[in-house]
Amino acid sequence: MQHRYPEGAGLGFRRELISELEAGVPDAIRFFELAPENWIRMGGRSAKQLRTFTERHPFVCHGLSLNLGGLRPLDIELVTAVGAFMREHGIGLYTEHLSWCGDDGLLYDLFPIPCTGEAVRHTAARIRQVQDMLGRRIAIENASYYVAPPGAELSEAGFIRAVLEEADCDLHLDVNNVYVNSRNHGFDALAFIRELPLERVVYMHMAGHYVEPDGLVIDTHGAEVIDPVWALFEQVCRLTGPKPTCLERDFNIPPLAELVEEVARISATLARAGSATKELAHV
Q1: Which superkingdom, per the lineage (predicted)?
Q2: What sign results for the dihedral spanned by CA atoms 252, 180, 139, 128?
Q3: Is the model's pTM score more than 0.90?
Q4: How many domains would you assign to the chain?
Q5: Domain of 119?
Q6: How far apart are CA 196 and CA 172, in angstroms?
Q7: Could you tell me if residue 49 is inside a domain?
């Protein structure tokens, strides 16, 4: 199947939504995103259901367990399986987190990488290895974190830039993650984003979060996107131009109609950014 790449606004492909989506995919949803780890070994009815959607709609693979910043050897079997899955379903884009998630086994969480030169070289080498195996560029997502690793030699934005440049890969910009980190660690979200290599942005995420009673912001993907994150997304789109953007909703999943309202808002924001870009081009 020919590889297809996302455009416009998309939605995370959740099993809880399949029955509603089978009745008809709303026009606002231009693509879907899935975690390949949850589908590559799936057979039977679930595999057939997925195939009916990938034949008709673009999909993005967003990995959860590649452990790019970890010390264990890269999971070659997983990378090979992801590549085969992408070819089978015509998926053109694969993204992963700039984090580590494995030690003796999978830790089922995404932990921050120390912002050091050694970590830049280590992580970039693993990204290049994945790209070589897949025969394509991948995009790396900025992660949320709650405790900063010690020994930093670079700022977080500087670390992200250094990894992407050394690996020669693309950036998956998660706007909510930047907002969450800015609240928890006390920095200006837009100023942080301006320090990133925005010319490498090929994909974005929007999501909701939860605020603990003590003020800690947790990246849950379990609530509606809040107004400050929408405002930040609007500003980001002015800087990057319209990039395909997915709404993440992994918990407390509401009826499809409610999610479509948020997807449509993403689409409208991207359209405004596109119009502004065209106007500037004619100035």
Answers
A1: Bacteria
A2: negative
A3: yes
A4: 1
A5: 9-281
A6: 11
A7: yes
